Each structure stands twice: as structure tokens, then as C-alpha cells.
Amino acid sequence: MQGLARVVTRDAEFHGRQLKKGDRVMLMFAAANRDPSAFECPHDIDLDRSANRHRAFALGVHRCLGSNFARAMFRVMITELLRRLPDVHVAAPIERLADAGDVYAVKHLPVRFAPRPREGVGMPAHSD
């Protein structure tokens, strides 16, 4: 779930925006990860960002139990991808799924990279 919808119960002002009773508002959790007052260059992917208190895995008692495993898996995946394909880049506009609601679901992510020989192909088999 990426957000939480609510209905305004009374007229109010919030960060300079006028809210009227009955208006629908949405708290977008993912937006917290792009707060420039909390993160320098919040739109850049920086795997070495220090003091990274993002909200991707929730906080407190609701924290995702698999968060540390997911981080380790992602670090290995990205490291291996960039080691094997150092020139990989997005080659065309990313197409998103139209019916994914508020989730950033990618339907097509066209990439390009220079072809290289597959690792391990043509190498002698090991015998132990």
C-alpha cells in the first residue's frame, strides 16, 4: 500500500493549502522518501547514502521482517548487474501498468548494453 486516503472533517489550512470540509486527501508514504529536507538529492539513486532513514519498509512495530534480507538481495543484484553490464542504460520510455493503482508498476523497461561473452561458457568443467 502506497498511501492512505482520508476525508477532511473541517476547513483547515495545511502548508499554505486551503482544505475544505469534505475534500479527499491522500497521504503518500513513498513521498516521504523524496523529502528534500530529509534527503540530499532525494530523486537520485545513491546506494551509499548515509543516514538513510527512508520509509520503504515502514517503521517501528510495523517494520517489514524481511527488510534486511531484501536490502542484501538488492545490493547483490545491483552489484552483479553493474559488474556484468557496466554500460546498461534505459533505452526508451518506461511503460507503466495502467491498472496498478498507486503502485509504480513497470510493464516494459527497455534497456541496452554492449554484448559480452557469457561467463562460464566454454570454460572447462571442474572436477572435485
Tally of alpha and pi helices:
1
| Strands, count | 8
- Poorly predicted runs are none
Main beta sheet: strand number and arrangement? Answer: 2 strands, antiparallel
Q: How do the SSEs run, as a string of H and E?
A: EEEEHEEEE
Q: Structural class, from secondary structure content?
A: alpha+beta
Mean pLDDT, rounded to whole units? 83
Distance between the termini: 49 Å
- Beta percentage is 15-25%
The gross shape turns out to be: elongated
The helix content is 10-25%
Strand order of the largest sheet: 1-4
Multimerization status: single chain
The value of Rg in angstroms is 21 Å
Explained architecture:
- The structure is a single chain.
- The protein is an alpha+beta fold and 128 residues long.
- The chain has a domain at 1-53.
- The protein has one helix and eight strands.
- It has one helix at 67-84; strands at residues 3-7, 12-14, 17-19, 24-28, 89-90, 95-96, 106-108, 111-112.
- It has a two-stranded antiparallel ribbon. A two-stranded antiparallel sheet has the order 2-3. It has a two-stranded antiparallel sheet with strand order 5-8.
- The radius of gyration is 21 Å and the shape is elongated.
- The mean pLDDT is 83.
Write the layout of secondary structure elements.
Layout: E1 3-7, E2 12-14, E3 17-19, E4 24-28, H1 67-84, E5 89-90, E6 95-96, E7 106-108, E8 111-112
Antiparallel strand pairs: 1-4, 2-3, 5-8, 6-7
In brief:
This protein has 128 residues and is of the alpha+beta class. It contains one helix and eight strands; from the N terminus they run ββββαββββ. A hairpin with a 2-residue loop joins strand 2 (12-14) and strand 3.
